[in-house]
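Our consortium's second objective concerns turning raw sequence data into structural hypotheses that experimental partners can test. To show how far this objective has progressed, the report includes one record in full. It was chosen at random from the queue rather than selected for favorable results. The single chain below, 284 residues long, was entered without modification.
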Amino acid sequence: MIDTYLLEQLAAVHECGTLSAAAEKLHLTQPSLTRSMQKLETLFGVKLFDRSKNRIVLNENGVLAAECAKHILAEENEMIQRVRTLDRSSRMITVGAISPGPMFELSPLISSVYPSKTITTEIRTEDELIQGLTDGTYQMIILNREFKSPAVHCIPCGTEQLYFSLPPEHRLSQKPECSFSEMNGENFVVAQNIGYWDNIIREQMPDSKFFLQDNIDALTEIVQASTMPAFVTDITLRVFSRRTNRVYIPISGEAAIEHFYCVCRADEALKLERLLQTLQRRIQ
């Protein structure tokens, strides 16, 4: 049996080209690395290096051994990740979403279906979410489009309407609805991690400036004390209390409404069957 550390060192020698460079990368002394390579040659029973007075390089045997070592290390890493993923899935449900709004209502729902599991959520881009679903980082993702693939199970899970949050004295505060173009050019205070909505507001209001706040408590205090416009959605209005010094105006146009879809891998759908059935009943 060859110890993993010897395979890692052999792979580093192959990658770096010289023992001195590999030793530096591995934070080892060159004599220590040399002894490891000699031990490997003893274990293989063949020479892995061509040696000259001032040079030692992998020979044909050594190159093959190093390539095999890289393959074994990759397989070992995959094994570890798969076991960790299985263990994590038994104890928690990890959900990635394109924006935070849906999770305000879905997280309590998931917890009610699986009370013994921990729910973790992340806001990521669509590409990151799909990759995370593929590699097992997420058991479920929330996209703002239907994802059609035989490899996944996809169901609609709600909509979200964007609103302007305005002080009562604002020039547009009495309107029943307001467009992006009517507010273009004004300055807004905005939560930093609003996912896909960040793209929408920047595209729709290119002349506006957005002052980002990464702390929700700080954002709430600023909105409460400021006359600057901000954003809310119908979901956040349902989940959180309304501010008495604010008027909430729905934003007109299709760009201000997002339709969300819950997506899981087809081979994971049976494990999440109770949750999927609950979501389907919820939107009927």
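The partners drew two points from this record. The chain has a mean pLDDT of 90. The first strand starts at residue 49 and ends at 51. Both points have been shared with the crystallography group to help prioritize constructs.
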